[in-house]
Design brief:
Layout lengths: L5 E3 L1 H6 L1 E2 L2 E6 L2 E4 L11 H5 L7 H8 L4 H4 L4 E5 L8
Parallel strand pairs: 1-5
Antiparallel strand pairs: 2-3, 3-4, 4-5
The chain binds protoporphyrin IX containing FE.
Length: about 90
């Protein structure tokens, strides 16, 4: 069953910045990583640095080679439609 994808802007993304509700933007896509947090090999705290924000620079810095699209397929919320510069 395919989930309906949403369009997510910066205001909406930044609301999901908690351990219990954590969305991250990576390369134009927004993921709800809440269920993935405890499985992240780099730890919860590291992943939470990108909570409700643009995780692309940190992701690239630590492991640009990781296949996040495949790993987070079931976590995809939808495309990012906001302004990245509002997320700093
Ligand atoms: C390690 C996935 C985001 C920091 C890893 C590894 C995976 C992974 C698979 C193990 C890599 C290996 O084989 O060595 C992901 C996914 C992300 C994500 C799917 C997307 C949401 C981030 C972010 C940060 C981060 C945003 C930094 C703020 C780290 C660190 C390690 C790590 C520091 C190294 C842990 C160690 O080897 O001690 N991550 N990561 N990751 N990740 Fe992430």
């Amino acid at each position: 069953e395919k989930k309906r994808l949403q369009s997510v802007d910066d205001v909406e993304l930044s609301r999901h910045n908690k351990r219990s509700d954590c969305w991250i933007h990576i390369f134009g896509q927004v993921y709800d990583v809440t269920p993935y947090l405890e499985f992240h090999p780099g730890g919860v705290d590291e992943l939470m640095r990108a909570a409700g924000r643009d995780g692309t620079p940190l992701f690239n810095q630590y492991h640009a080679w990781v296949n996040y699209e495949s790993m987070l397929k079931s976590c995809l919320v939808g495309r990012f439609s906001g302004n990245l510069s509002n997320l700093k």
